[in-house]
Each structure stands twice: as C-alpha cells, then as structure tokens.
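note to self: the first set is below, dont mix up w the second
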Amino acid sequence: MRPFCENRRVATETIGFDARPSVGRSVAEAVVFSSLLAAAVGASLVAVTERALYQRNSLVPTLIVVCGTLVIYNIDRLRDRHRDLHSAPRRTAFVDRHAAILVALVIAAAAASVGLLIRHGVASALTFAPILGLGLFHRRLKRWPSVKAIYVALAWTAAALLAARLVPDASADVDRLVPVAAILGFSVLANTAVAGSEAAGGRRLAFFAAATALALSFATDRAPAALAILPLGPLVALLVTDGGEWGRLTGFDGALGLSALISLAFMT
C-alpha cells in the first residue's frame, strides 16, 4: 500500500490539478466523498420502502441506515485508497487529506447505529450483522464490476427491507413484499451498475435494470403506482450524465435519491 503522501501526489498528477480544492468545491466534495450523499440516498430508500410496505414512516430505521452507510462506505474508502487511486483520484485525494476526520466519523456513526439497534433489541442488532458483513466484503468483487454491482444492489435492498421492518407494528403480506422488493432492487442496480464503473457493460446493465424495474411497476397492482418513479432517476442519469468520476459519484446517487423522494411524496 502506498503512503498517504504518495497517494496524494499520484492523485494530483492523475486529476491534473492541485489536490487542495477551493472553498466551494470543498463543500461539495465533503458531502460526496465523506459518503454523506450515499447516506442521504439510503435514507430516502428506507423511507420509500416503509411507505410502500407499511403506509407509515419512522425516524429510527432511517437513522440506522444513515449511520450504517457512513460506517461501511468510509471504511471501504479508507482501506482501499490504493485500489481506488486511478478510478476515483479526486475522492482518494480527499480521503488522504481528511483520513483522521473520516475515522472519527466512522467511530461516531458506529456507536450511534449500535445504540439505535440495541434500542430495538438484541434480535434486531443480530439481524443487521450480516448486512454489515455484506457491505464490507464487496471490496473483493471490485475486479468484476457487474458482479459487484449486483451484490451491492442486493445488500442495499436487504438493508432497506430490514430497516423498514423496524417500523412500529409493521406488517406486510408477501403479495406486496415481493414486487416492492423487486422494483427497489432493480432500481438500485440501475444505480450501482454505473456509479463505480466507466465500462460500457455497466451502462448496459443499468439500462436493463431500470427498464425491468419500470416494467415491473406497471405489471403489478400489488405495489404502489408511485414506485414507477423510482427507476426513472437512474434512467435519466444514464442519458444525461457523463462517465467521469464526478458524474459517476454524484449524478447517479443524486438521481436515485431524488426519484425516491418524489415517489415518497406521491405516496404520502
């Protein structure tokens, strides 16, 4: 593994400008590269899943996913800087500059998520333990982008469904659970297939996933009609977002989160 200073030097050369950003860009990079954007997207996915399955929302499950996302994603960023150096040089430079702050964020988010889970009982905490393992294991799949995309989409779908299950008095029948899970899963896959890869194969997989989610939403009357909005965000992002690092790391996550919020608004 390269020393931090060497990572920063190579990142600076790769992106073609000084790794010390302006104030405006610092704010944007802090939101994106610290995984706050990913955590916000996770919150929106939990909220729309809760509403689709149980017709109500609860703050605690959303906070659990937000904290868990900050833990998993930042651990991944911190330990894989040497792997991500060429695919995400701007993010690597940011992580090198703010490694100590990100470590503190991981510790604080981990403590908060454990506390929230314990509040719901040991059974809930143990239920989420496999999701943590799934989230941390995907680094081994980075050499196979499509496999990684499917894996991460499944992990996100499982996390959203499990978190939504923590809603007080939650009860959903299988007839509703299956189509909601399928639409959610394919919509997330449309995001993960391209968010971490510039390959054309990733874009083809994303188009397939978005089209499948859209078709499923129209084919079933068991899921709320507003879920048809969920895959539209990634689909539009595929058409208008470039394949560069910033576009991949912001456009697709932002589009998925926005479509989830719009879908939620129509279900409220």
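second set (the one i keep forgetting abt)
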Amino acid sequence: MKLLIVAFLACFALASCKSKTADQPAEAGPNAELATLLEKYYEDYLELFPLDATAIGDKRYNDRLPISFT
C-alpha cells in the first residue's frame, strides 16, 4: 500500500512540473484583436453605466451619476 501511495505521489509530482515550451511568448494576432475588442467593450460599458464604474472604484464617470434625491 505504501508503494502505491509513493508511486501516485511521484506521478503527481512529475505531472505538475512546468514544461520548458510553455515559456514561449504568445503570438500577436487574433488574441490581440480580441483583447482590444474586449477592452473597448469594457470601457464603453463603464461609460454607459456610471454606477457600475463607481461601484468598482473607477471615478472617471462620477460626473454622470444620476441625481436621485429631491
């Protein structure tokens, strides 16, 4: 039983090692275009919904908050 546990732990340790090929830089292309698109969407969302922007700590749109007091 101990041999089985040791073998399992050895396999787990080897499987969790990081490979050398994973350090290659990401290619520019569709991923960069998608990142740009998502960044634009996020900025537009914050501009359209200033309460959400304020809730996450972005104070750029505080001048557009609705006045709800009378």
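remember for set 2: The chain has a mean pLDDT of 84.
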